[in-house]
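[Automated response] Your request has been received and processed.

Submitted sequence:
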Amino acid sequence: MKVFWTLEPPSRRNLLVLFTAGLLFWSSMASLLPTLPLYIEDVGGTTQQIGIVMGSFALGLVLCRSWLGRLADRRGRKVVLLIGMTVAAIAPLGYLVVKSIPLLMLLRAFHGISIAAFTTGYSALVVDLSPVSKRGELIGYMSLVTPVGMAIGPAVGGYIQAGIGYTPLFLLSCGLGAIGLVCANQVKEPRIVHETTDSSADSSETQQFWRLLASPRLRIPAIVLLLTGVAFGAISTFVPLFIKDAKVDLNPGLFYTAAAIASFISRIIIGRASDRYGRGIFITGSIFSYALAMLMLSHAYTARSFLVGGFLEGAGAGTLLPMMIALISDRSSPQERGRVFALCITGFDVGIAIAGPVLGFIAEPIGYRAMFTITTVISFLALIIFATLSSKNLSHSLRFAFGREKDVYALNK
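Generated structure:
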C-alpha cells in the first residue's frame, strides 16, 4: 500500500473517496447475489425463468455499455460514475413492489445499467489517476472494492433475508447505493484533453467504436471475457439453487464470501507483480483457476467442495478482471479509454447475458452438475484461445501468455 503515499495529495484523496464509493456499490450489488434467485423462485419462477430474469441484468449492460463508454470519453468519467450509483440506489426499491416475471426482467435490465456505468467510470478514473509505472499495482489495490463488497454483501444479505425477510434486504441495498452516490459526488476527476468532434462525426465515431473489435489488440481480450463471463454468469445465477438442490447444509452467501476472500488475496499480490512480470502469465493463471473452479463445482457434493470451488473462482476472478483492465489500459490511449473499456467489458456482459437463459434451459432437464461440466469446457476453451492468440502470432502468444515476452500491443500511455 506504500504506492498511495507516493501520489500527489489530490490524487490520493480522490482514490480513497473513489474506493469508499466502490465498496458501497459492490456491497449493495452483492447483497442480492445469494438471495434474488430464491426471491424469484418464491414468487413462482421456474429454473429457466430464474435464469432469464437474472440474465436480463446483463441486457442493461450490453445495451448501454457502448453509449456510456463514449459518454465517459466526451463528458467525463464522473458523470458515468454518478449514473451507475444513482441506478444502484433506485433499482432495489423496485423489488419491493414487482412480483411478475416480465416486470422483474425489465427491472433487472434497468439494474444492470448500474454496473455498466459504474465499472466504466470507476476503471477509467483509476487509470487516469495512476502513474503508468504503477498502473497494475494501483488497479489491483483499487479493485479490492469488489471482493470486500462481495464478502460483506452476500453474508449480510443472506442473514437479513433469512432472519427478517426480503423488504429489509431491498431497503439495505438501496441505502448502500444512496450513501455511495454521496461519496461518488465528492470525486474530482483529472482533466483529460479530448479531441473535439462535431455532430457530423458522431455517426462515424459510433461505427469506429464497433470497428475496434476487429483490432488484434482488443479482439482476444473481448473473446476471453465473453467466455469467462458465461462461467461467471453460471456462478452468480445458479450456485444458490444448486446448493439447495443438492441438499447441502451451506448458506449460499458463504460460497460468495469464500470467493471474495480469495479474490482479495489475489488482488493484493498480483497487481504489483504484473508491473514487473507482465500481464500475460497472470491472465493465463486466472483462466486456469476459473476452469478448475467449474470442474470442482461439477463434482461438488459437500459444503467443503462448494467452498473450495468458490475459493478457486474468487482467485480466478480476482486476477482476471484487474489484469484485463490493466492489459486494455496498456493497449489504449487516454482519449479512447472509455470506449475501449466499454467494448471489451461488453464481452463479459454478453457472457453473463447468455449464461442465465441458455444454461437455465440446459440445467432444467440435465441438472446443475452437467451444466457446470459445460462451463468447465468453456473455461478451458478460453485458456486455449488466450495462450495461442493473445499476440501477433502463435510463438509470441505463447511467450506472452507464460510471461516470457512483453506485450507487443502496449502503448505505454
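Summary generated for your ticket: Residues 8-187+209-401 form a domain with the Growth Hormone; Chain: A; fold (CATH 1.20.1250.20). The chain has one domain: 8-187+209-401.
If you did not submit this request, please reply to this message.
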